[in-house]
Amino acid sequence: MPGSAAPLLQVAALSKAFGGLLAVDDLSFTIDPGEVLGLLGPNGSGKTTTFGLVAGALRPDRGDILFAGRPVTRWPASRRAAVGIARTFQLIRVFLSLTALENVLVACLYGRGRARSPARARADACALLEQVGMAHKRDARARDLTLGERRRLEIARALATRPRLLLLDEPVAGLTATEVDAAVALFRGIRAEGVAIALVEHNVRAVRALCDRVVVLHAGRKIAQGTPEDVFAHAAVVAAYLGRR
Amino acid sequence: MTVLWQNVVFGALIGGLYGLAAVGLSLVFGVLNMLNVAHGELLMLGGYAAFWLFTLFGVDPFVSILPSAAALFVVGLVLYRVLFERLASAPGETKLKNSILIGFGVSLVLQTLALIAWTADERAVTTAAAGAVLPLGGAVVPVVRLGALIVAFLALGGLHLFLRRARFGRAIRATADDPGAASLVGIPVGTVFAVAFGLGSALAGVAGALVSTTDAVSPAIGLSWTLKALIVVVLGGVGHVFGTFVAGVLLGVAESVSGFFLGNAYREVMGLVLFLVVLSVRPQGLFARE
Lengths: 245, 290
Description:
By secondary structure, chain A is α/β, with parallel strands linked by helices. Chain A folds into two domains: 166 residues, P-loop containing nucleotide triphosphate hydrolases (Rossmann fold), CATH 3.40.50.300; 72 residues, no CATH class.
């Protein structure tokens, strides 16, 4: 355990291959409590695979994952969620036949730090919808919401499990410029509550605005890390890898 | 005209039971993506439960609904844990196909066990109210059948409220939408699956007890009820409790009316024709939103 401020998440020498393709290759990084870390890289560089490994949807071939000092490498996703790793998906996975409120409510009722009473859970769920700016849509079915609304709903549902680390997979993809600004403000608010965030994102503006640090991946390997300014200044080599041109 | 009307009334009354039988099947299919083709045999067990409670202890079948439902809930849980649970993590196609195969096996075993235990005799419960009828616009409504329809409706209303309002009901609906995401928000998906299977079986138990008041119960009735339930699920679409109930009533009326016009031999044919037409024209079901 290095230093006094132990990292919240420690990923050490992680590797994962699909068939012959090394999707993640000997990757190491850490996330401190309350930090926002960006994972950058072109499509296919292993960002989403890394998320899957950290969240527990995938098992690594080699390497270790420590969360709050505990080795969680062999834990299933549900158990990791129970100790505070929450995620959103690149392809949004809200409960389509439930209302917005119910989506958040089930997470308040069953998630980490579950509410003691139904009334309390309901109040918590309403507050979370308010926080993500969805209070006015609380009785709408998720299937009737727009893409941007579904994203915000998915984030509210993730927050309802009271995570210590929130994994956001392209949370502003497909949003309008105004919606992006609103999302950035929302993530700042989440971070201000002490939740660490790992962010996979192509939107450079969002990354600059949010991330304390970024890790750049290429073909599953870490090729750069540092503050967004450093990394974005890192000349043409890195620029070539920064997302969709 | 009166005879036609009488046929409509009778069709609607029997159709309520089709709907009830179908909702149990639909619940299991919607939540677990498994087709329990032994559903009709579970209904048959519910029928025998009511029959024996009546014959041995004089319990009215309308009272036997509760013990029958409870017993079938347990039977469903055990069947799920022992046979179906291993499929839970299989990919969709495999899960569906293998559940059908397992269900066929279960249905054969249950039929044979029922045959050994209770012989092939057709059983029926004759309660005090058996002969009573109410007039309805020129037709007569047998009180017992009307009672069965009302109970079926109430059972489905209860299920609907449970799924909409109860904590665990919401967990069931969330799991039906996306088991992976449900497990990430802390819903005990394994328990939800088992309880959903048990609930589906309990509904078969309720339906069976009601069937014993109006129709014959024998070891062989299962397949025909499974088929009716399947047709109704296709007509109504998955995941709509009342849509399924209405589809059941529709099927009952369609069978009865076609029996009237074309002869009784065509009753079953009509149901299957409806099944094929809806499947090819509106595969999402008559009442599904999209």
